[in-house]
Hints:
Number of strands: 2
Order of helices and strands: HHEEHHHHHHHHHHHHHHHHH
Amino acid sequence: MAELGALSLPLAFFLPLLTALAAFLLGARQAPWLAGIGALATVAAVADAVRRVAAHGPQAYHLGGWAPPLGVELYADGLAALMLAMTAAVALAVTAYAGAYLHGQGQAAERFWPLWLVQWAALNGTFLSADLFNLYVMLELVTLTAVPLVAMAGDRASLGAAMRYLLLALIASLAYLLGVALLYGGTGTLHLREVGELAGAGGPTAVAAALVTAGLLLKAAIFPLHAWLAPAHSSAPAPASAALSALVAQAGVYLVLRLWLWAFPALLSPVVGWGLGGLGAASVLYGSLQALRQSRLKPVIAYSTVAQLGYPLLLLPLAAVPAAASQAWQGAAYFIVAHGLAKAGAFLAAGNVYYSLGHDRLAGLRGLAPELSASVLALGLAWVSLMGLPPTAGFLAKWQLLSGALAGGQWPWAVVVVLGGLLAAGYGFRVLATAHAAAPPGGPVGRPARRLPWRMAATPLLLALAVYLLGVSAVPALRLLGQGAPEALG
C-alpha cells in the first residue's frame, strides 16, 4: 500500500472532484462550507506534493497500480508543482470570494459550485497528466465547465459569449485530437516522454505538432485566435472571470511550453521558435492596444490577458540559444505564476466594483478611490506586477526574459518585453487615474449602492500582495523549477 504522502498527487485531483459531487447532491445551502473544506484539503494535498517534488525530485503515481501504457500516470516535476501551487492559491481565493459574492443567489450558487470544483479538479489533472489523451480529457472537462460559467448570467450577451467560446473550443479540441491521433500512429505511444524520444523531425510529426499547437493556442486565446476571450471573461461572474483568466487560458500556454520542450524538441528549430515567439509578441502588442481602447473595466483586464499570455511564448525562440535558455525558462515559468495571481486579483477587484456600483464603465469610476479604497488598491498593486515593476514577481519574470534575450543576442524579444510593459502602464494608469481623480461636484460619478462584504474586499488584496511576496522571495520557486527541467534547454 502506498504511504499517505505518495497519495498527494491523486488527492490533488480527486478531492475537488468529490467535493463537487457532494455540493451537487446537498445543494446551494451546504455548498459554500463544503467547498471551503474541500479547498483546504486540496491545498494541503498540493502543499505535500510540492514539498515532495522540492525534496526528492519529480514524483509519479500510477492509478490502480497499473504502469503506462495500460495505466494512467500522474507526474509532477518542478513546473507542474509550481502550477499546482499557483492554482491552489487562486482557487482558494476564488472559493472564499464566491461564498460572499453568491450569498443569497440560490440558483446561481447551485450552478456555480459543482462547475467550479470540477474545473479545479480538471486543471490539476491537466498539470499532472503525462499522457496526450489524458490531457485531451482534462482539457475537455475544463472547457465543459467554463462554458456554463460564462453563460451563468443568462442574458443575451453572456449566452452569445458562451456559444462563441464553445464553438471555438470544439474546433480547438478537434485539431488537438487529430494531432494526437497522428502522433500515436507514428510512435505507437501517447506518453509525453516516450513521444519525445520516438518522434523525429519528419513531416507527419510536424503536421501533428502543428495541429496540437493550433488547438492549444486557440484555447489559450493567443492572437489571432483570441476572439472568444474578451466577451467570455467580460460576461462571466467575477469569481469565474478570475479563474478563466488566471487558470483556464494559462493552461493552454502551459501545455504549449510543455509539449514543445518535452515532446517536440526535435522540431524546435530557430524558424519554428521565431514563428511561435512572433505569435506571442503579436499577442502582447495587439492585446495591449485593444486594452487601451476599452470603455469598461472588465474588457480592459480581459484584453490585458490576451497581451500577458504572449510573454511565455517568448521562451521558445530563446530555448535554442544556450546563453539565453536558462534565464528565459525561469522567466517564462515564473511569469505564468505571477500573471495568475495578479490577474485573479485584478478580476476580483473589478468584480467588487461591479458588485458595488452595478456597472464597470470607466466613465463612472471618477472619484471612486475613497469609496472602494481596498479594491482600487488591489487593482493598482496587481497592475504594478503586470507592468513589470519591482519588487513584484512580474518584474522578476520579465527581468529574466529580458536578460535571457539580451544575453543570447535576441534583441527583438527584449524590445517586446519593454514595449509590452509600457503599454500595460498606459492602460493601467488610465483606469487608476480615473478612480483617483477628484470627484465631480455632488460626489463620485458612481456611488456604491451595496456595501462590500469584508471577504470580497480582502481577497483580491491578498492575491495582489502574494505577487510581491513572490517577488522578494523567489529562490524556493526557482529551485523548484530545476526539478525535472526539460533537457531541451541544455
